[in-house]
Amino acid sequence: MTAGRPRITLASIVLGAASAQELARFYRDLLGWETVADEPDWVKLRGPAQGLSFQTEPDHVPPVWPPAPGGQQMMLHLDFLVDDLDEAGAHALACGARLSEHQFEDGVRVYLDPAGHPFCLFLPGS
Q: How far apart are CA 92 and CA 29, in angstroms?
């Protein structure tokens, strides 16, 4: 603990979706992580260094990408470092991702997961 500040550690990132089970299945297939908690409306995956959790939100509204006035705004997105954009992109598509119509930078590809959350695959140095 730093003087005057309690120790606070990020335990997980939670993504809401219409179906926690379906979104967790997508990321489990994409990343090869193991399921460590599995309930109808809550799933937690664990990777080598961190985890992702998924929560069912019956009124989930996918964000608009790219952002548009009046549209549901993206609260966060995930970035994944890859060695080969084409290979990783093909894998993401096979798992159920969609390539975003809007791409903004060389060395980075934006995809949408099955619940509509944007995520990026990027090369080192991008």
A: 9
- The tokens for 43 are 């799933």
Residues 36 and 72 in one domain: no
What CATH number corresponds to the domain at position 49? 3.10.180.10
Q: State how far Cα 106 lies from the chain centre.
A: 20
Q: Say whether both 44 and 23 belong to one domain.
A: yes
DSSP track, 3-47 = TTS-------EEEEES-HHHHHHHHHHHH-PEEEEEETTEEEEE-
List, for residues 70-121, the tens digit of each pLDDT value: 888 767 788 899 999 999 999 999 999 999 999 988 999 999 999 998 899 9
Residue 8 confidence class, pLDDT cut points 50, 70, 90: low
Does residue 1 register a pLDDT over 60? no
Mean pLDDT for all residues in the chain: 89
User: In one letter, which amino acid is 58?
Assistant: P
- Are both 56 and 69 inside the same structural domain? no
CB-facing half-sphere around the CA of 22: CA atoms within 13 A: 12
Domain residues for 65? 61-126
